[in-house]
Q: What sequence folds into this?
């Protein structure tokens, strides 16, 4: 496991949003790609933002959910409209 590091990064404008730079090395350490989802936590005083990588759904669970929805499509459609 890599040692915790402290580096500075700049915020920049990206379209209508702002972004923080993530280096190629950071991305590799995180084992992240364009599909990786992060949770953002902002401290109450607004001085700290923490990003935590969310673990992907286990493929077996994902398959179970897809099968369940397929087998119970009428029920799921009824629940969605209520």
A:
């Amino acid at each position: 496991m890599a040692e915790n590091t402290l580096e500075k990064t700049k915020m920049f404008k990206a379209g209508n949003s702002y972004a923080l730079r993530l280096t190629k090395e950071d991305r590799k350490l995180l084992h992240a790609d364009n599909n990786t989802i992060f949770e953002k936590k902002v401290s109450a005083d607004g001085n700290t933002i923490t990003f935590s990588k969310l673990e992907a759904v286990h493929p077996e669970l994902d398959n179970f959910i897809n099968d369940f929805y397929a087998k119970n499509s009428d029920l799921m459609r009824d629940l969605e409209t209520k």
User: Anything to note?
Assistant: The chain has a mean pLDDT of 88. The two ends are 48 Å apart (CA to CA). The beta strands are 11-14, 17-20, 38-42, 49-53. The longest strand covers residues 38-42.
